[in-house]
Structures are given as C-alpha cells and as structure tokens.
Amino acid sequence: MKYLYDGLSLQNGRSSNMDSLLLAEREIDRKNSLLAVVCDGVGSMQDGAFAASLAVKSMNDWFNSLSDLERIGLRMRDEALKLNSRIMEQAKEQSLDTAATFTALLFVENRYCLVHIGDTRAYSIDSNGTATQLTVDDISEDGKLTGCVGRFGNPMFFCSEGEVDGKMFLICSDGLYKRMDFAPVLADSSIMNRKDMKRTIQRMADHAIERGERDNISLALLIPKTEG
C-alpha cells in the first residue's frame, strides 16, 4: 500500500492558530503505515494551543516507537488516554487553562483505525465527492463542547475500524466543515499527484473562507492506494 496525502493548518481570521496537525508515514512490521492527527485547541481557554500541540507530539512519538501492529486500534486508544493524562498533569504543573479536540486516523494496508473526541471530524469520500462522516461530534444542544483531551479525567473516546475500499479520507477542524460543501470541490478534482492534492486542499480552505469563515482551518487529505 502507498499513500498520497497532504494537509495545511491556517490561522485565518483569528489572533493565533491553536490547531495542530500531524502527518507521519513509516514502515512497521514490513507494512507501510500512515498516521494523521488533527487537534483543535479550545478557543475559550487561554492556553488551548498547548493541549493540541502536546497531543500531536505524543502521537508522533508513539507512532515512531511502534515495532509491531498487534491490536493496534486498542493501543492507539490507550495512547490517547495516556496523552490526556499527560496534558492534564503538565497543565496543572504550569497553571495552564487548556484543552483540545482530538481526531487520529491510522492506515495499515487496506484498513484504518480511528480514535476521536471533540468536534473535529473525519470523513470518507467516494468518487462522486460524497462525504460520509466517520466521527460523532461531542457537542451539547446549546453548542458547547462536551468532549476533549486535557480537561476530563476519564474521557470517552469514539473508536472505530474499517476497510479503505478505494476511498479518500479527510480530517478537518470545524473551521472547514462549518461552511464547507464538499461535493463541488472534490467531485471536480482529479488528484493524481502531490501537486493536485495541494491544489485541492487550498481550494477547500478558500471555499470556506469565501463563505465567511474566520476560524482557524486545519485539514489533512489522504488517499490510500494499492500498489501496482
């Protein structure tokens, strides 16, 4: 399996960018693997960027330490629980007010593992540009975030696994999807190489901004491809 992927994290109209993005690829146990993570620091908290940054760093360290893929979905969930505790401990030590959403997608061969909490989203996208949301938003009826990393001692992560099946995948912060209509952008995009991917990602961000979005925008677009 090989992967075509890219992403961006854009400050847009905010005074700072509290988002963090990770894209990492390596061979594990003779299998090419790709990890993508998007974390959105909670804007109502002064130090939201700290939680997002530490979560991404922790996942990168974990991914680089893997020597096998046994029970990898459960292990990724366990690492998310550990990083939640790590953020809380460091925030307490440094008197920080911090939390972040967390969405991680790991590809191994023709399967993916997903671990998520908050209101960043992961989608699978078919050849017509039709997007299917793979995550569940942790949002109350009055619009408040009910799940995140770095704030609660026993967070309830949403976890799932599935087949790649020739689809494209997207992880994005709410700064993209709140004003995004995926179909007209993706259905007209022929993504054959990294240059095409960069162009499509920029078009997606521009589309949201043109519709009036001022929040930070972070996204990762990923296409697993069977070699040959």
Secondary-structure map with pairings?
Blueprint: E1 2-10, E2 19-28, E3 31-40, H1 48-65, H2 72-94, E4 102-108, E5 111-117, E6 121-125, E7 131-133, E8 158-163, E9 168-172, H3 174-177, H4 182-186, H5 194-210, E10 217-225
Antiparallel strand pairs: 1-10, 2-3, 3-4, 4-5, 5-8, 6-7, 6-9, 9-10
Q: Please work out how many helical segments DSSP would assign.
A: 5
Radius of gyration: 17 Å
Give the biggest beta sheet: 5 strands, antiparallel
- For the largest sheet, list the strands in their spatial order: 1-10-9-6-7
Shape by Cα distribution? globular
How far apart the termini lie comes to: 9 Å
* Structural class estimated from helices and strands: alpha+beta
Q: Name the beta content range.
A: 25-35%
Provide mean pLDDT, rounded.
91
How do the helices and strands follow one another from N- to C-terminus? EEEHHEEEEEEHHHE
Indicate the low-confidence ranges by residue numbers. Answer: none
Q: Helicity level, as a percent range?
A: 25-40%
What's the count of strands? 10
Describe this structure in words.
- The chain is α+β, with helices and mostly antiparallel strands.
- It is 29% helix and 31% strand.
- The chain has a five-stranded antiparallel beta sheet with strand order 1-10-9-6-7. A five-stranded antiparallel beta sheet has the order 2-3-4-5-8, with helices on one face.
- Strand 2 (19-28) and strand 3 form a beta hairpin.
- The radius of gyration is 17 Å and the shape is globular.
- The mean pLDDT is 91.
Give a short overview:
This protein has 228 residues and is of the alpha+beta class. The chain has five helices and ten strands, in the order βββααββββββαααβ.
